[in-house]
Prior knowledge:
Layout: E1 5-7, E2 14-18, E3 31-37, H1 51-59, E4 63-68, H2 78-92, E5 99-109, H3 111-122, E6 136-140, H4 152-159, H5 163-166, E7 183-188, H6 197-208, E8 213-218, H7 247-257
Parallel strand pairs: 3-4, 3-5, 5-6, 6-7, 7-8
Antiparallel strand pairs: 1-2, 2-4
Helix pairs in contact: 2-3
Amino acid sequence: xxxxxxxxxxxxxxxxxxxxxxxxxxxxxxxxxxxxxxxxxxxxxxxxxxxxxxxxxxxxxxxxxxxxxxxxxxxxxxxxxxxxxxxxxxxxxxxxxxxxxxxxxxxxxxxxxxxxxxxxxxxxxxxxxxxxxxxxxxxxxxxxxxxxxxxxxxxxxxxxxxxxxxxxxxxxxxxxxxxxxxxxxxxxxxxxxxxxxxxxxxxxxxxxxxxxxxxxxxxxxxxxxxxxxxxxxxxxxxxxxxxxxxxxxxxxxxxxxx
Length: 258
């Protein structure tokens, strides 16, 4: 396995790779590649949504990269620029890494879901052009809207003093166009931190633009479930929901069928 930290030349963002080198046994096999954006409200990056997720993807036959995108005090559009460079760099090195250059997805959790979806809806405005367009978005309880159902702390950390002036520019349900890639979304109805309306609004925007989308909503579960298993939460504390743990298997199956 290629497990290393790669600083990118333009933005300086670090990519932490979890890549299977299968050339010795399956010379021609190209695996899907998922770039993982952990959550943390643009104030930190959650460890629960980083390496455990990457290792789970590896176990399902998918290569993974954790993107250590910028958080506060860095401000918009730094994380968006980093996401664009990360996707373009991954695509340029895909075959070298035994990855399929036409099956590169972004996966984001909470505010990391905002970072991942942001490049999905704004790739055409970035200097890398089509090279930074993800082939799919996998969004876990994502921060999407800066409107009524916003997780306001994420947008304050992202925008700083420009919060009031720029909120509309980063409310992603308003930025979806027919150029956006397909999406897989999941959320819980009980999420009190990032309301389920975030996923519903994004799915509705994708629907209006004719973008394929699969969405799953579990009734129970707090915000930040990650893998929703004892890999990320002690089994005694009752924080995870075993019924939602299948989301990642469902997402990988969905990605394979694109």
